[in-house]
Write a structure and sequence with these properties.
It is a single chain. This protein is α+β, with helices and mostly antiparallel strands. It contains 10 helices and 16 strands. The chain has 2 domains: 70 residues; 270 residues, phage-related protein like fold (Alpha-Beta Complex). 33% of the residues lie in helices and 23% in strands. A 7-stranded mixed beta sheet has the order 8-16-13-9-12-11-10, covered by helices on one side. Strands 3, 4, 7, 14 and 15 form a 5-stranded mixed beta sheet that branches. A two-stranded antiparallel ribbon has the order 1-2.
């Protein structure tokens, strides 16, 4: 029987206590760790890392399971307008408005005269489900909803798109911390960035002796948010499609979200902005936007960092950003930070069990992501801290699916090619600080 989340958390607390006891004993005797103590400490540290990975995986699984349970329950409810046939309601009909929940991106309501209204009807959902299963009957009823991509493909129903984006919220670190804008049908969205504040106000007489001097310090910048195309192929066995009681749309939405999530998360962190999102750890410029070099804090070493370096990084932020800041780090960074101690012997990184085991560094939460840069050499970024709500994500309001029924027939499988569009960028550079090695 796998250990419960509570048991894993308790086991980690006990191991941390044992490690602390080893260090405290050596400190009390005013000596370094001997070889036996060093070996024991490193073994405990490795076990704590493994438990941390298990805890994070268990928490993610439980969130995904709850999401699936809620979605499956929603399938039994009446949503939107009932239609007498499997044909989509034509645009301009007399149906009721349709509402769709996109998680962190909020809700979208489609009126009957909206260009994508048909994507939300029950008839379109039913026909799309048969399309996913490889049933050729009634595909033609999808009508004008055929995608514009020259390789073909069908636009997915709104319910399916909402499921994908909700799953992405859980799977992608930056999506869970950033600002996700409502999906758009526009080709691009202009995002205005506020680069430079005006100078402070001046004290003046009621009737000034001369004209008020114009302030030329304030500067606005901008970058087009253009949802860029992502393409992924997923497969499933014909036996699964024939015999499984799991709603096929839920299964495919989860797999599509997983595949897209891996690629998106890496781009949100390190993307270069060329036909992909502009990452947090990518050096921005006045022309491209993003986080510029003026927001970087250089560590005192070329191979590691100190507690003072972390203090310099966090407290270089304005107070309003500090109160909402989150550390975004790699596992190697987290391992080094866990061993840092103050002059009084207290560990700087605290394992806060009151918040489900989320660690804190100078009272700000620490989030570990495998795609955060982790090369500890000269000039490399190793961490970021800031208000991540100023990282904006823009999805396109269109997800195309193309069924490949014959391609994998000899393997008794059906494949689906999914195409999704998204973009992202930091919109306020001063809300972030990155730690760079000397």
């Amino acid at each position: 029987m796998p250990a419960s989340l509570k048991e894993l958390l308790t086991a980690r607390v006990e191991l941390v206590g044992k490690a602390r006891a080893i260090l405290d004993r050596a400190e009390a005797e005013k000596r370094d760790l001997n070889s036996e103590e060093t070996s024991e400490y490193e073994k405990i540290d490795s076990e704590v890392d493994k438990l941390t990975d298990q805890i994070e995986a268990r928490q993610k699984t439980e969130r995904a399971k709850k999401k699936m349970d809620d979605l499956e329950a929603s399938f039994k409810e009446e949503v939107g307008r009932q239609v007498p046939s499997s044909l989509p309601t034509p645009r301009g009909g007399d149906g009721a408005s349709l509402s769709f929940d996109f998680g962190r991106a909020g809700k979208i309501e489609l009126q009957p005269d909206h260009a994508l209204y048909a994507l939300g009807t029950r008839g379109y959902n039913d026909t799309f489900a048969r399309f996913l299963r490889g049933e050729k009957r009634d595909w033609e009823q999808l009508g004008l909803m055929v995608g514009k991509d020259p390789q073909g493909g069908y636009l997915v129903p709104m319910d399916f798109l909402a499921m994908v984006i909700k799953f992405l919220d859980d799977m992608v670190t930056v999506r869970g911390l950033g600002t996700v804008l409502p999906p758009t049908t526009a080709k691009s969205v202009g995002i205005l960035s506020y680069d430079t504040d005006p100078a402070d106000a001046d004290w003046t007489a009621e009737i000034p002796a001369s004209d008020i001097t114009e302030d030329s310090a304030m500067r606005f910048g901008g970058r087009e948010m253009t949802p860029h195309l992502l393409t992924k192929l997923i497969k499933a066995s014909m036996k699964l499609l024939r015999s499984s009681t799991l709603p096929i749309a839920s299964f495919i939405a989860q797999r599509v979200a997983y595949k897209f999530g891996i690629t998106e998360n890496k781009a949100f962190l390190t993307g270069d902005g060329a036909q992909q999102p502009l990452g947090i750890f990518t050096l921005g410029t006045a022309a491209t936007g993003g986080i510029t070099a003026s927001q970087d804090i250089t560590a005192s070493s070329a191979t590691t960092f100190t507690g003072d370096d972390l203090i310099n990084c966090l407290y270089d932020l304005k107070a309003q950003y500090i109160s909402r800041a989150t550390w975004l780090v790699s596992r190697p960074f987290h391992r080094i930070a866990r061993k840092l101690k103050s002059g009084g012997g207290d560990y700087l990184l605290v394992m806060n069990n009151n918040t489900g085991g989320i660690p804190t560094l100078f009272d700000r939460p620490v989030v570990i992501d495998e795609n955060v840069p982790s090369t500890f050499t000269t000039g490399k970024y190793v961490a970021c801290v800031g208000d991540l709500s100023y990282y904006w994500i823009q999805d396109g309001l269109g997800l195309e699916m193309q069924a490949l029924n014959e391609l994998f027939a000899l393997r008794n499988q059906v494949g689906w090619v999914a195409r999704k569009e998204t973009d992202g960028m930091p919109v306020l550079a001063e809300a972030f600080r990155r730690l760079k090695l000397a």
